[in-house]
Fold this sequence. Notes:
mainly alpha, homodimer, globular
Amino acid sequence: MEILLIIVAIAVVLAIAYAVFNFFSVKKMEEGTERMSEIAGAIRIGANAFIKYEFKLVAIIGAIIAVLLAAFISWQSACAFVIGAVMSASAGWVGMKIATYANVRVTNRARETKDLGKTLKVAFKGGSVMGLCVAGFALLGIIIVYLIFGLACGQIDDIAAGTVQKYWTNLDASFTMTLSGYALGCSVIALFNRVGGGIYTKAADMGADLVGKTEAHIPEDDPRNPATIADNVGDNVGDVAGLGSDLLESYVGAILSGVILACELFLHNAGFDEDFLTKLMLFPILLAGCGLLACLVGIGYVLVKPKLSSNVHMELNIATWISAGLSVVAGFLLSFFMFKGDSGFYDTVGWNAGNLSPWLASVFGIAAGIIIGLISEYYTSYDHKPTKRIAEASKEGAALNITQGLSNGMASCMLPVVVLAVAIFGSYMVGGMYGVACAAVGMLSFVAATVSVDTYGPISDNAGGIAEMSGLDEDVRGITDKLDSVGNTTAAIGKGFAIGSAALAALSLMTSYMYAFTGVGQEISLDIITPLTLCGALCGAALPFLFSGMLINAVAKAARKMVDEVRRQFKEIPGILEGEAKPDYKTCIQISTQGSIKEMRVPCILAICFTVVSGFVFGAQFVGGVLVGATISAIMLALFTGNAGGAWDNAKKYIESGGLKGLGKGSAAHDASVVGDTVGDPLKDTVGPSLDILIKIMSTLSLVLVVIFSEYNLFGLFM
Amino acid sequence: MEILLIIVAIAVVLAIAYAVFNFFSVKKMEEGTERMSEIAGAIRIGANAFIKYEFKLVAIIGAIIAVLLAAFISWQSACAFVIGAVMSASAGWVGMKIATYANVRVTNRARETKDLGKTLKVAFKGGSVMGLCVAGFALLGIIIVYLIFGLACGQIDDIAAGTVQKYWTNLDASFTMTLSGYALGCSVIALFNRVGGGIYTKAADMGADLVGKTEAHIPEDDPRNPATIADNVGDNVGDVAGLGSDLLESYVGAILSGVILACELFLHNAGFDEDFLTKLMLFPILLAGCGLLACLVGIGYVLVKPKLSSNVHMELNIATWISAGLSVVAGFLLSFFMFKGDSGFYDTVGWNAGNLSPWLASVFGIAAGIIIGLISEYYTSYDHKPTKRIAEASKEGAALNITQGLSNGMASCMLPVVVLAVAIFGSYMVGGMYGVACAAVGMLSFVAATVSVDTYGPISDNAGGIAEMSGLDEDVRGITDKLDSVGNTTAAIGKGFAIGSAALAALSLMTSYMYAFTGVGQEISLDIITPLTLCGALCGAALPFLFSGMLINAVAKAARKMVDEVRRQFKEIPGILEGEAKPDYKTCIQISTQGSIKEMRVPCILAICFTVVSGFVFGAQFVGGVLVGATISAIMLALFTGNAGGAWDNAKKYIESGGLKGLGKGSAAHDASVVGDTVGDPLKDTVGPSLDILIKIMSTLSLVLVVIFSEYNLFGLFM
């Protein structure tokens, strides 16, 4: 059965080859005028400098974790951790690299051709490198771990033979720990990339806006604004590198939560044979592999089609639909043929739809992802009532704009959660808890396509910035703006997938967690009414709030430094606002880099240490509560911040596009909407995505440590 | 043992008599100048009109609920519901009445004596009427229900005899349903009073501020502002009547959750005798009664002391400490003597500290309440860093003020939750789940004193408004401002008690809920990892967000109407801003009244119907999840909104008091801080307090209905 992994291997090779091809095909394009090259170069240098700085910090923390894993869990787990970290870091790094090459080439293509479709192709080619690398690297790492530790080191055989011990001294035999180690590696990098990049980009963005737009009344990306290069660097390190590591982590989390759960189900129920175990373990990986093949077709559609129409949104949708549709078909075939004839085991895993159970569950996931995305679009696009209402409220000033946005964001939590609940319940009904994991994998099976689409947005955004700064024609900027605005909508939908899959993956990891400290043959259960679990749930629910509060504070702190610097330059460098003197971009870049590196530490370390410490102090039941509370409250906060932020952003755009009769740019209503947009920035781009990672890193970490702290905790010693 | 209720009866009689005495002693004071009388009259008429309007709506909904209770639960439950509703409505109504008499008399006392202590006495005398009525009416109702239905109708005997049936057709025998009915009556009124009053007061306040302060740059309470009378009416209907019903509901909820839990423990464990059951049922009521007697002393201290010092905060603290201290002593004596010799039963109820268990648990509650209050003070008072940071951020404009406030509010959730968790765990350890209920009662045992303090705040606020509008000397306003500012601090602490006790009461109601559908002899448990419960928890957690979003939207909608009207008047009535023409106050009052009555309906009905509908569709396990999810997420949101709102308010005050060197009123930083204050207003005064009620009304309602929907639900029919 393992031979099927060849499909995944082929997918990985093709994806990475295609990514390499696209990378160089973008790189060899012309950069345009000298001024354009110069600006793009500055952005590239800034982005590289940040990543270097950041990776130094991450390397230290990663090394500490790896040593601890090797010492207390197993060397296999530590190795897998390092592999995961390398994969995640590489995906982010490659994505950022290509984005800093592609941006200026997009501008140049727009300048040369004035054609939307042709420009889209360059931007999307850049994005596709990232999309393909995310899925390719993630699966590459999984295959390596599976082949080396699972097969060659015999860890899967140990599980099949049931020789895995519950106690941590014998733990080096457990494959689940190795897989968790890999997931943890991806999570740690994702956390730092997302948080660091998020702080960087929003500090620069807010700093640039607060003084530039609000005080000096100069447009966005104006070269007179000293923070403008830093702002564009931010797009690359936050929205590209951060997003890449983030989605790689989600993807890995979803896949491995299924694989790990398969092991736990086998160990605890012993109601099925080794062959079925292998199938359960392979299915999520194979589904992802087939999804990646499907994405090659979908991405190829956009890149190969001779003439793209000017309806950008439709072209991208077609690419996504092709990828999603083929994934569904492939999933059906996989499920149908792999599990045919295993009917004796269906009851053990809770399958109520025969051999189609895992496929049906994955379809629940895909459907939920799409619906949650559409709901996000409803709440954030200015074609619909909620965002229009925020724009209307701006007439009454900034306070009502904010109030209306908060109201909108809070009210937007219910519908997506109901959809998520239906998906959980539905996938559980057809496929048991394993079905819930399959739903998560389903949601992300065509991640290569969605990341490509998500990445082309910030590339176009940057391209627009370069056009503005190089003083190119209005119509160049017009083309990049159109690309960017479609990117905003697709980003909102992408967020739906991110939070939905995070919730499902966290849930199935939590189930594995419960299994890990429950005796064989016993039912797992987490009684929330017992005081220890309940207290855990309360503290856990407060954690995402504390984490978010810290992140917002970090952004605000860094942004204020930026504001002071921009103000200083406006005051001290004469002629800067008249365009006669050149602002000092470098200092602003330094402020963003140092500020974000400094500010990211505490929230990231909190995220990692909270579960560890509470596990060793209060034990496994408490941490179970923590995970439930944190997951539930993080889902709400992620939806709230994402939708509120998106709606504020678009309410501003609605006013700019003339949605409020007679009130355009420069009106009081527009000023009010800029305040809302600025408030929303860190919420939607720093806090929301980081919360997705938070809940997964917490559940992965608990899963790794539970076998230790369920035996050794302070509370257990004294009570 | 029931003879001990005489203590409670004495406390009730004394409290109400003292309230009546204070009422008339305030009313017979002089009102001052004709202008003052006129303004106070307008406020009084406006407040009365709103309450009349509101009670009409509430009467209809109350009648519907009462009929449904009588038809499907029991006539006793319906009667108790009506009694509860009457008690809660009366407390709110009396409080509002006295507040609208006391406000002008406070102004006049300040005008005549220019003495802070003497003015405080009038304000506090007004507040004490409300404080005494809240506790007095609540206990009066409980005694009536206990004597008539519990003893005279023999419902307690039925429980003692174990003849209570689980099935709803025989339900008319259950005392727990009757008690729940009473609690539900209080909750429904509290919900409408809080939500309606909250929308009214904040719509008027925001409307007045947005145009008056921000656009026309006239001070607060300036008579030229057409919304100013409505704003002052709002203080009375929101901060007085709303607060009164709210705290009465918390008080009743805490007490009855203990009494109901006692019944459920008896029915399900059958490990103790009837005498011990009676004691368990009486203890929370007696503790509250003794607390009320203690408050009579504490309140008397302020009112009887010949010369109050000018350190207002200290004088009020002494009153509170006397009340709290005596309550603790009385609780000790009660616990020690009542439960002496019952050691055989301690294990059954999980008491680990012998006959002092319930007392120790109540002390946990009191300590937690105080600490949570102090934490709130830390996060909201401008003597401390968080609020100062918001003020500092205002220098960078409104966006960073808002961002910093959000960050502050989110980060402020963790510490109070940890304290709450410790209280839950501690009280559970010493007294089992009954201990948790005792902790809730402990927290609120001296509610008469805290409500008196809480109510004197808005009375002083109103007094200041009247001084401003009547054109009195600056120093009169100075005195009322000082009183008001102390009121703000005590209000923040009061909020800590409100949310803390709500959480504890909801928890113990939830435990009763679990018992109500669990078979005798079986352990109760709510496994959060099962999909139905988990989906319930997810949807439940989204509910407070939806509810809050709707409330904020309601305020914003009503406020925008007010803004339009004020702008219209400024434009259409010539000479209004020069003080030559009189604005049309009445229209503004009408807008607030109609707006709030209209906007309160949907969120209130949602709060009531959500649990009912989900119970009849998905059954008891789902609702169990809903209650857990909603409680957890409501606690976070209540802390977040309360602390963020309070901090924004005080950041503005900090700037006004010259905290930022060189930047006072009229500076850009001050303008930014006004935006924050306006955003925070509906969060802290409408959303936060309403969430406390939401979680209790949900658990009470579920408790009433669970015996029906655990048998009859759509999901059960089909699965």
